Amino acid sequence: MATFELKLPDIGEGVQEGEIVKWLVKPGDVVKEDQVVVEVMTDKATVSVPTPRGGKVVQTFGKEGEVAKVHHLLVTLEVDGAAAASAPANGHATAPAAAAPMSSPAPKAAAPVRAASEKLLATPVTRRMAREHGLDLFTIAGSGPQGRITKVDVEAALASPGNSAVAAGPVVPARAPSAPLQSSAVDQRVPLKGLRKKVAEKMVRSKFTAPHYTFVEEVDASNLVAFRNRINAQLAAAGDKAKVSFLPFFCKAVAAALRKYPQCNANFDDATQDLVVRGEFNFGIAAATEEGLTVPVVRGVDRLSIKGLAAEVSRLAEAARNRRLKMEELSGGTFTITSLGQAGGLFATPVINYPEVAIMGIHRMRKRPVVVDDQVVIRDVMHLSFSFDHRVIDGAVGAEFAYAVIRLLETPELMFVDMV
After folding, report:
1. How many whole angstroms separate alpha carbon 410 and alpha carbon 384?
2. Lower CB count within 10 Å: N or C terminus of the chain?
3. pLDDT by residue (tens digit) across 350-390?
């Protein structure tokens, strides 16, 4: 019998680890090909990890609640075959799994590991952390892509024996270590863990990395309301029980506007300081679950019909609530739309879904008196809020993009002139 190793596949989107939520197998179990063996929580959602090979479970690595890093071993199986094998690094698994909490070798912080003329790759957060502790990043070996120095590398350097920076303490402390808050018998402490903790970490990363600015404008949605009503009436008349919400129309309007402003349909690569303008229109649709916010991705928004968009959004939302999203349904986003429906409030300042550079918030629609052609009339009015990464999207560009979206929503027939 040969041995097969299932490793945590490359999660992508800058995610390098996940928390083991639940093991679904134990040593001695016999599993089939594509059977789910473990549930893992990334900073996006809880996902299920299947094995690409069938066989007998020899050993599982990592306990529930522990953190697993990409490419580390999850499960070993006894399988039919003559040679040992392992899952590809890019992962056959439909969802990233939580590998055993195996730490990377601690980088040495004593001798220089790169020439002073060599380009040093590190995020602003990593640079600040090193600066606060008096560490020279040129003395730290990076374990990330292209030798990029990560937070884990800095932490390992700080923990290495004989590191003078640990004894000396931070050079420029950004914030003093805080003492635990006092609480009484009538208070309740709720630990930050699971998906809630992952969401918190990602929001902090986004706000510390991307300088946000938000643009808010009003939309007269009266024509959109009438347009949607006509489509739903036609579906009903044809015996189709499907009912289209407003969200697919917002997706189509954004996709059409992004064709004119492609720099808003992009990711920012902090490692290389490049703006990666995406050629596909894959929209993250923020969905609230009992565990926290999840952002499944609708792929090919520009190619889907309104009815097809409605069905896909509904399917992904249901999968998110049931914790059955696949990894490919959580990665590859180019733009995000967030909506709380009738609870959406007047307007808000949404946080960019890192590493994307723009996000749109949809807010409550209600009837209001407005002036049209010098007459006071009742219209369906709402606000849209757009947040942009000011490193790459200037204020004028953000405003022009927002007005392009609004123009299409106020005259919805226009969004179908060049799109399906």
Report:
1. 12
2. N
3. 999 999 999 999 999 999 999 999 999 999 999 999 999 99
Q: How many CB atoms lie within 10 A of CB 147?
A: 17
Predicted TM-score of the model (pTM): 0.66
CA pair distance 259, 253, nearest whole angstrom:
10
How far apart are alpha carbons 296 and 146 in whole angstroms?
Answer: 28
Q: Which two tokens stand for residue 108?
A: 């040495």
Bridge partners, residue 73, by sequence: 7
Question: Which of 30-44, 84-98, 143-157, 201-215 is least confident?
Answer: 84-98
* Contact assessment for residue 49 and residue 75, using Cβ atoms and an 8 Å cutoff: no
Q: Active site includes 240?
A: no
Contact 74, 96 (CB under 8 A): no
Residue 185 in tokens: 């018998």
Which tokens go with 81? 């075959």
Handedness of CA 113, 116, 122, 125 (dihedral sign): positive
Instruction: State the average pLDDT over residues 332-342.
Output: 89
Amino acid letter for position 211: P
Question: What is the average pLDDT value for the chain, to the nearest integer?
Answer: 82
Q: Which of 220, 269, 390, 418 is catalytic?
A: 390
The DSSP output letter for 168 is H
- Per residue in 214-235, pLDDT (tens digit) is 999 999 999 999 999 999 999 9
C-alpha neighbours within 13 Å on the C-beta side of residue 234? 8
Question: Rounded to whole angstroms, how far apart are CA atoms 260 and 138?
Answer: 42
Active site residue 92: no
380 membership: H or E segment, kind and range: strand 375-389
